[in-house]
Predict the structure.
Amino acid sequence: MTALPAAKPRLLAGGAQQKILAFASLIVLLVFFSLASPNFLQTANILAILQATSVNGVLAIAATLVIITGGIDLSVGTLMTFTAVIAGVVLTFWGLAMPFGIVAAIAAGAGCGFISGSLIARMKIPPFIATLGMMLILKGLSLVISGTKPIYFNDTPSFPQLSTGSLIGAVVPGLPVPNGVVILFLLALAISWVLTRTTLGRYCFALGSNEEAVRLSGVNADGWKVAIYALAGGICGIAGLLIASRLNSAQPALGLGYELDAIAAVVIGGTSLAGGRGSILGTIIGALIMSVLLNGLRILSVAQEWQTVVTGVIIIAAVYADMLRRRRAG
Amino acid sequence: MTEVIRMTAIEKRFPGVHALRSAQFDLRAGEVHALMGENGAGKSTLMKILSGIYAPDGGSIHVNGAEVRIAGPRAAQALGIGIIHQELALMPDLTVAQNIFIGREPRSRWGVLDEAQINRDAEAIFAQMKVPLDPRAEVRRLTIAKQQMVEIAKALSFRSRILIMDEPTAALNEAETDELFAIIRRLKSEGVAVVYISHKMDEIRRISDRVTVMRDGAYVGTVAAADTPIETIIAMMVGRELDQSAAVIPDLSAAPVALEVRGLTRGRMVRDVGFTLRRGEILGFAGLMGAGRTEVARVIFGADPRESGEIVVRGQPRAIRSPRDAVAAGIGYLSEDRKHFGLALGIDVRGNIALTSLERFSDRFGRVDEPALAKVAADYIASLAIRTPSDKQEVRLLSGGNQQKVVIAKWLLRDCDILIFDEPTRGIDVGAKAEIYRLLQSLAEAGKAIIVISSELPEVLRLSHRIAVMCEGRLTGILPGGPGTSQHDIMRLATQRDPAPQDMARQGASA
């Protein structure tokens, strides 16, 4: 062992740089809006920002997993709606207890992810096409199952508590952090752990880095890919529960467009669309940047149309910054 | 020495290709056994069968005396067979240790990884190899040579007793090659058997014990490396060719120089290349795979930037920075891969012929003059004898030979009189090949200056008025065409490595 030099501490890896850049942007935004408006840095407003981040954040976590493998999932938005509708069917149409609705939504999500993953890994349909198809199928099915009308959770009075209630607030009265936000951060921790510490996470990065090499190493590449899409689908089920709980209803017409916000958060957070690199922490920062921006612009009374324009500019700027850094790194 | 591998009567067919014809190979413990042959001789295919990547269509494989069926890469690993692919099969975003143990990570029941464990294990392997490499380093930040070490470590981590290396030094410099050879010798002394695929004669002599030669998918013979002259090995690789009709060399001493290249350099693949090309001349470019021939063409064509050197077209130095500049200077490049770079497959014959000249056939509103195009297309279809039902036929439906003619028509229409053909007959059947040869000859007679890059020596000999031979980015010599030059002469130059070519060139210049 003496022949080996001591392991040098690694300089900031590529992904870390982008994360720091994203984090710095978030801080700049926070400082800017705090100075621009006294209403911004109020507890209630901060909690509103976090609450607004919860659904997009959870969807973005799902998208991160898939994007790290070098794939893409366009169906996360309508899958979220579909799982919300499933929860509505179980809780309102069938009148079962809340745990059944939770399990059903997550299982439905994982099932749909399993199907997407199988289309991609086994039938070799490009991820963009397979999940575009799933996106439309699920949008249609949500409308069909719900009869195109919202399903309200009036029979399950505790259901809204899932997202908008506050367990923390019950213990610490001054800190009414909504449960939805707690769920987002717990999920982020869990998936971050899965990505960095488990086999599944390792294969996410490996597949995105060089799928052929994974195959040549004798790994069941297709099987793992299906598992990753299924996990992402299950996470979309959690997002479905959060949004249904917040609206106290499953809105079958909702969902389209959410996938783009989720992908935007992933990209701003420094996960490469080419696959192989990325992190949950980056994605959460990305999702926060988007909500802070929208909230701040709203407080400054910027018209909603312009808020959307700014979001688009931010996405392009974030990716361009990443390209510049990469070009410098060679 | 004990025999560890015996492959007998191995057959393999791919659509349209009989890749292996009753190929055989054997390997003993503690030897380095070189596997040689021209491009496409079947070396890599045979080794991919041994490592479980391809399934053979026939024949038998014995490992340590027992007949085996190798169902996949996993099965090969279990038998102690490791392969290091020509294109390294690494995951650049993962660390060294993560790459080595991919698919075999030590983990608990819940799939939790033990990162410290794999780093320790990798460290132990590198200590055994006596290579200082940090298992925690990200693979993308390593040099190609270090990445190769990772591949070797990965193979060793399977306790491989058989190591297959497919052209491991293709991207290595002299010092890196020495480092690799030191490791190979160490492994050999520990009884590991190494299959070494390479084109480089001097390396074979330095490192290997025995040499097996393959040609056209078949076994030619096995000889001892130490006491077999290189000439003999080259003769085994080249074999006897039936078609020896050599080129008729016209006297071009009075013809004007169409293209002159001086001191062209780009990285390792193009090093100080210089030559002249006259009007009416066909200059063949020969060399083994990776010798830098295509790279030279791409630099001349402006597809890759050059680091230094001059390109003089018809007596005038031209600053060619992009393919656009090259085309403006009258240089056309017909790429090796027609389907990717040369043709728009889904567009019809007429559209492809007009593709680079559309501006000439459209008015200032961008409207295309279809009748004029149709006439031009008809002219070329007739003059080049393109076999197509009409000029509205989609190009993808034509045969390879006719696709190639469409590309030629495209460049002729663009007034290119310097044409670079990169593997003009790849994927084209024998009958069509002869037709392409005749076409190239008639283009030269019409005063075009032509460069033909080809990996098939008979083709080079048949077409070229002069033959430029490359090895490792350098032009190792220019031979006269015609019957005076043999395949042996070309192969000798194509395998002539020169440890310090730059220095020698400089000395020669100053002397």
In short: The longest helix of chain A spans residues 221-247. The mean pLDDT of chain A is 89. The two ends of chain A are 33 Å apart (CA to CA). Chain A has one domain: 50-164+173-321.
